[in-house]
């Protein structure tokens, strides 16, 4: 299923304090990340934000203001129904042009009791911008001077040029896991419309040794994104703006049922030794 062995994976749970207000904190972090996975996990009417990173990059998440980043053990994410998302159009055409707030947290509030996950995997791709420029060049040079570009294609080319100006690109995968298939339609609303084309991932495979189908649960914890061996125009090659619009932190946590950090008032914090206090 495209999984690969991870080296020294570190698992963090991000738990905002009640006073947390997101100022696009991840916008400063993502350019410094080479490989990361976000798991927005809904269980028992509560949302958890779980990060899979590595030892060398985990410190970036530990410094987010008003957020407690606690190390946790690898979560068990097993779902009977899993879907992988694909782009509706060519990956050169952006799904958003400016950062937009994810609706994920509000959508999760509509899911009661049932367990589900929205997983977003991102691996930096140094050749992403070149791939987008290549598509732009093929469209512009492929139209002879006597044949004008149609207005829709011209709009696509202009928006692709804006996407290509971004300095950071990522090979991405967005994958949904649910206990109830009805929730797929709700989860599609958590991501920008341009990436909501879904493909079902089989949870069974045929065993020649046992001569029947066996369980083959999707490996959420160890999965890593990589370009398909056969080139795919709808593979999610996203720039930093597009990725941020999928994985942004909640703007306001006061009305969300989300795992919060344990805020310790200053007066109850570490006390100075008596000999260090000015009298």
What are its keywords?
279 residues; nine-stranded antiparallel sheet; two-stranded antiparallel sheet; 11 strands
Structural features, described:
The protein has 279 residues and is α+β, with helices and mostly antiparallel strands. 20% of the residues lie in helices and 26% in strands. Strands 1, 2, 3, 4, 5, 6, 7, 8 and 11 form a nine-stranded antiparallel β-sheet that branches. Strand 9 and strand 10 form a beta hairpin. Mean pLDDT is 87; it is low at 265-279.
Largest sheet: 9 strands, antiparallel
* SSE string, helices as H and strands as E: EHEEHEEHEHHEHEEEEH
Poorly predicted residue ranges: 265-279
Straight-line N-to-C gap: 66 Å
Strand pairing plus helix content: what structural class? alpha+beta
Radius of gyration: 21 Å
Summarize the structure.
With 279 residues, the chain is an alpha+beta fold. The chain contains seven helices and eleven strands. It is globular.
Break the fold down into its secondary structure elements and pairings.
Elements: E1 9-16, H1 25-29, E2 35-43, E3 46-54, H2 58-62, E4 67-71, E5 81-86, H3 104-108, E6 116-124, H4 128-142, H5 151-164, E7 169-178, H6 183-187, E8 197-201, E9 204-207, E10 212-215, E11 237-239, H7 240-247
Antiparallel strand pairs: 1-3, 1-4, 2-3, 2-6, 5-7, 5-8, 6-7, 7-11, 9-10
Helix pairs in contact: 4-5
